[in-house]
Amino acid sequence: MSQPDTSGDCSFSDLDELVKTLQLAVHIPTFLLGLLLNLLAIRGFSTFLKKRWPDYAATSIYMINLAVFDLLQVLSLPFKMALSPVRLPFPSLCTLVECLYFVSMYGSIFTICFISLDRFLAIQYPLLVSHLRSPRKIFGICCTIWVLVWAGSIPIYSFHGEEEILRCFHNMSNHTWKARVFLPLEVFGFLLPMGVMGFCSTRSIHILLGRRDYTQDWVQQRACIWTIAASLAVFVVSFFPVHLGFFLQFLVRNDFIMECRAKRRISLFLQLSLCFSNINCCLDVFCYYFVIKEFRMGIMAHRPSRVQLVLQDTTLTRG
């Protein structure tokens, strides 16, 4: 989503070559590792879901949904690498790849947001957990997420306007960067989910700290607190730079920033942010296997405590 190759005397071709080399180094191992681990995660959580273990069915649905979004993003990476450097005479393939990429990104964001909200409710209102976290309701939430992200992808079809020759993820049309198109996507696609996750995570930590002197399971709750804090930090580190880059590019494309050096730096920052944010498709998997380990421990014990259930749900966000 960089600037055109040239803007007057301001050239971006050298930056594109640098990013192309870096993408090869980052995306190839991300694709191979992410493909394998996300397929294994889907298989693992599908096994738990098939067994319909009542304490873990809702969590398994959330995890499968997140793994599918991560898998879609992983599958889009080879096409992103292959199509970005070349100029295509037709937009359909480019639009499909861009849709898959951004649908998977925002689908992951919304899924993580609902996981955080679900975890907060499990800690704040434990008596309501069994009612609010039925598999049918969680499945309905996941279906709603898919509808929302696909509906939100509609502006992607006009990313390149009427250009005869285009480059995927480059040279977005001026219409794409209009305030009426860009700002709703920025607010509802990132700022609102980040606000919800920030509130739920900080409240959850505050509640667990308040129980320190009234619980015999402080060791588990302390691990829960560290997991929540780390998950929030990783979420911000993963997605905040990308959306900051989008906002800076919005300023460039609307002529608020016109100096060539600033444009080049913003273009490089945005492309690097997008490149490194894809690594989270692999990092999520480590959370999945911690959750599976907790599942197995709970099944062996046959009587998982409420704190164990909360701890399992607090290991569900981005790693």
From TrEMBL:
Superkingdom as given in the UniProt entry: Eukaryota
PROSITE patterns from the UniProt entry: G_PROTEIN_RECEP_F1_1, G_PROTEIN_RECEP_F1_2
Regions that span the bilayer: 22-41, 53-75, 95-117, 138-159, 179-202, 223-248, 268-291
SUPFAM superfamilies associated with the record: Family A G protein-coupled receptor-like
Gene Ontology biological process terms in this record: phospholipase C-activating G protein-coupled receptor signaling pathway; positive regulation of Rho protein signal transduction
Keywords: Cell membrane, G-protein coupled receptor, Glycoprotein, Membrane, Receptor, Transducer, Transmembrane, Transmembrane helix
Bilayer disposition of the protein: Multi-pass membrane protein
GO cellular component annotations of the record: plasma membrane
Residue intervals of the G-protein coupled receptors family 1 profile domain: 37-288
InterPro entries assigned to the protein according to its UniProt record, in alphabetical order: GPCR_Rhodpsn (IPR000276), GPCR_Rhodpsn_7TM (IPR017452)
Subcellular location: Cell membrane
Keyword Cell membrane attached: yes
Principal subcellular localization: membrane
UniProt-listed Pfam families: 7tm_1 (PF00001)
A GO molecular-function descriptor: cannabinoid receptor activity
Family to which this protein belongs: Belongs to the G-protein coupled receptor 1 family.
PANTHER family cross-referenced by the UniProt entry: G-PROTEIN COUPLED RECEPTOR (PTHR24232), G-PROTEIN COUPLED RECEPTOR 55 (PTHR24232:SF56)
Listed name of the protein: G-protein coupled receptor 55
Top-level taxonomy: Eukaryota, Metazoa, Chordata, Craniata, Vertebrata
Gene name linked to the record: GPR55
